[in-house]
Amino acid sequence: MPLSNNVIESLRGRLIVSCQAYPGEPMRDPRTMARVALSAARGGAAAIRAQGLDDLRLIHQQVDLPVIGLWKDGDAPVYITPTLEHALAVAETGVEIVAIDGTAQERPDGRTVAEIISELHRRTGVLVMADCSTLDEGRAAADAGADLVGTTLAGYTPYTTKTEGPNLQLVEQLASALEVPVVCEGRVHTPAQARAAIDAGAFTVVVGTAITHPATITGWFAGALPRG
């Protein structure tokens, strides 16, 4: 079995942990994110999703798990690995999978999702995960050669509605329509929701905030108390 197939198969029915910190936060440091990733690996994560070239290099060096890499840049609607140049730079960090924006929105470099996926495969051989927000986008990304399709941006594009938890309806639709693995990502806040995503047809589940973002988790608890 090719190495790329082994990487994908290692994710089947398992948890991917997203280790990211927002700009200006105390944890926004590659060494900190690498330690968070190491802790996630110890807890049973099958892979790590992370962003930023320095974070990706260090995590790839220190954590013995596949890494899904991305680069958040700019304030345009498309900011997750928004151009081919961003994607190539992410691939050069050594990650096994590059995540790109897979929506129908215009990219800063004018390239299509299909063009970026094709060039990434041709130049690097890296696997590509397309972060989508609708069924049509997922279909288009799969047709373009994406190796995995995620629900990452459901509720985060102007034309989609944010669900309270993960968009399980979209997971079901994608799983029924596509032959490539479907990744449930976005607002998975409990173990029960993660399991529900698998039951809905997800190949694997990404959890970030509920595991690796102390400020938000603290806010959930503080807000539940009378003086919150």
Automatic annotation (TrEMBL):
Its Gene Ontology molecular function terms?
A: N-acylglucosamine-6-phosphate 2-epimerase activity
- What is the stated purpose of this protein? Converts N-acetylmannosamine-6-phosphate (ManNAc-6-P) to N-acetylglucosamine-6-phosphate (GlcNAc-6-P).
Could you identify this protein by its name? Answer: Putative N-acetylmannosamine-6-phosphate 2-epimerase
Enzymatic reactions: an N-acyl-D-glucosamine 6-phosphate = an N-acyl-D-mannosamine 6-phosphate
Query: Do you know which Gene3D superfamilies this protein is assigned to?
Result: Aldolase class I
| Pathway connected to this protein | Amino-sugar metabolism; N-acetylneuraminate degradation; D-fructose 6-phosphate from N-acetylneuraminate: step 3/5
Q: What is its EC number?
A: 5.1.3.9
Does the record's keyword annotation contain Isomerase?
A: yes
Q: Which SUPFAM superfamilies match?
A: Ribulose-phoshate binding barrel
In terms of superkingdom, the source organism counts as Bacteria
InterPro entries (alphabetical): Aldolase_TIM, NanE, RibuloseP-bd_barrel
Asked whether the UniProt record includes RNA-binding among its keywords, one would answer: no
Lineage of the source organism? Bacteria, Bacillati, Actinomycetota, Actinomycetes, Micrococcales
Against PANTHER family, the record matches this protein to: N-ACETYLMANNOSAMINE-6-PHOSPHATE 2-EPIMERASE-RELATED (PTHR36204:SF1)
Q: Family assignment?
A: Belongs to the NanE family.
Q: What class of enzyme is it?
A: isomerase
Q: Which UniProt keywords apply?
A: Carbohydrate metabolism, Isomerase
Species this protein is from:
Flexivirga alba
